[in-house]
Amino acid sequence: MRWGKLVYIILFLPLLVVAQEEDRFPRRGSRIIDDSTRQVYGPQTSRVFTYYDLFYDRWETRPVDTVIQDFHRFGAVERSRYRFQDLGNIGTALRPVLPVVTDRIGATSGLDAYDVYWDETIPHYFNTRSPYSNMHVILGGRGRSLTSVTYSRNINPRWNFGFDYHGLFIDKQVQRQGKGDRNVKNNTYDIFMSYHSKDSAYAILADFRRMFHRVFEYGGVRLPGDYVISDMFTLNAQPWLTTAESNDFRLNYHIYQQYRIGSGLQLYHRLESFRQRNQYIDPSPLNNFYDTAVISISHTFDQMKFRALRNEAGIKGRAGIFFYNGFVAIRSFAVDYLHLNEAFLDYPVTSGTEFYTGGELILPLPKLGTLAGKVNWMFDDRYYFNAKLHTHWLEASLSRSVYTPGFLQQAWRGNHNLWINSFSNTEASELKGNLIISTRRLQLYPGLALHTYRNLIFFRDGFPGSQPVLPVQSSGYQTAALPQFRISVEPVKNLFFRGEWIYSRILENSGNALQLPPWFANAQLSYANIWFNGNFDFQIGVEVHYKRKYLAYAYMPSVQQFYLQTQIAAPDFPVMDVFLNAKILRGRIFLRYHNLLKIFFDTGPVPTPYYPGVRNAVDFGFDWSFYD
Questions:
Q1: d(CA 237, CA 611)
Q2: Which of 295, 316, 484, 499 is least surrounded by CB atoms within 10 angstroms?
């Protein structure tokens, strides 16, 4: 059956869904009341802001999040609108599906499969008139649970502190032995503080963050040579690995301070310390999954440690109508290989100091929009540049990056892999833009993105001998054009259709380094309303994600890297969810049936070769805030 035809029909099927609004009537019954017996404290008295609000001198705070639109999207892949490829389960390794340009141009570990889970937990800051706490719990079907807890309170009107906790508790989807048989465990917490002086001339933000992310690897489904896709979804599907584990431990300290000298000038300082320890462990590597044993045939314990300390000082402010910023920074770094003696390495340098300079300019265009530019330069050929234009009828941006290869790609000695390279810096560029056609009920965004890479580093298979997968660097260019179209329409009151379509065309592909889905689509049809005098705010609807069949990257767990392969195509199975999001009083809830089409077929989505996606499941979640 050709899934493409079915998808195009589904994308335009009418179905009711409902969007959201703020709760306009505060909950009654609090111990703290005013003369009208209404609760004094609520979303409007517990305000939230970010580091960027302070840095860009906006001094803006927003009510805490009570929005229910798309509240049912609780996995990182879903929240990204399927921009990432995973191993079929929440919390597993991720890589971008579509081309991106990184702004991290200095030294890194190169172990970035779990970066998204770390980046998602960057803390927000609060200004609360009463103690604020929030509990966010997801009880996903087939043992997929997430928990988040936030607490914050003001010590005085200018000084606030708080903490967050985030947990992922995700069961295996292949040969699960019972409740609590985990595929992923993640525990992340942070402590944060904000303070400003009476005249707001001085302000400081500080936070500490810790993550321990564990993935119990199973290596994909073990299949015979004449398998079909449905074999991955049978109850007796067997994993390759049963004792392997990848884990990523990270620590971060961040302190930001600023002082206003005059109306148009501020001094600031930012200190950030980062540590990462990444391990791969398998007490019983005695099977045919691994291609070689470099160190031991009876036990695998691989590890890399990376640390960096960045000191940045600069000036910023508003001169007339525009915002400016200029800075200098020094960053020290070091890497420690467990099984590789750095003293014998001429390249790469395993410790050192990097110097940065750069700045930013944001210029409002009266009656037109905003023009912004940013540059970050390392006093050599490495830099990041970004320019953006936003008007009422056009959005456009240009990004370019020349960045350092990761340490993992440059040199590695583990129990199942060994290489030493001398890769050069990678160049990446992106030029994109779209028109904005907007009326009261219809918004259209036709656009185009152009991506170019040079000296791209990637892993690929096909090498002879005991190591068939190795990192390589292309000597030529990769160029891709991505025409795209987004739409948001309200054909009748409270009925919404939102969709996006992206077509990928690879124009130049040295070394066949790029593998992109020819078609990429998301669509949602929903109905939104508020009933019972504003006490029941809900959204109900259906959404579909679809990628045309393509050669998705495979995965090598021993180094947590995706690699290019040319034998196995990811099936074009559409993922359809039916959902209900609602807000009742101060709580948000959702109910979702995930992967509805799996009911009717014995196959399903396979985002990565040999890694089946989650079968159909009923998911439930709630979020409740307390303001006293």
A1: 11
A2: 295
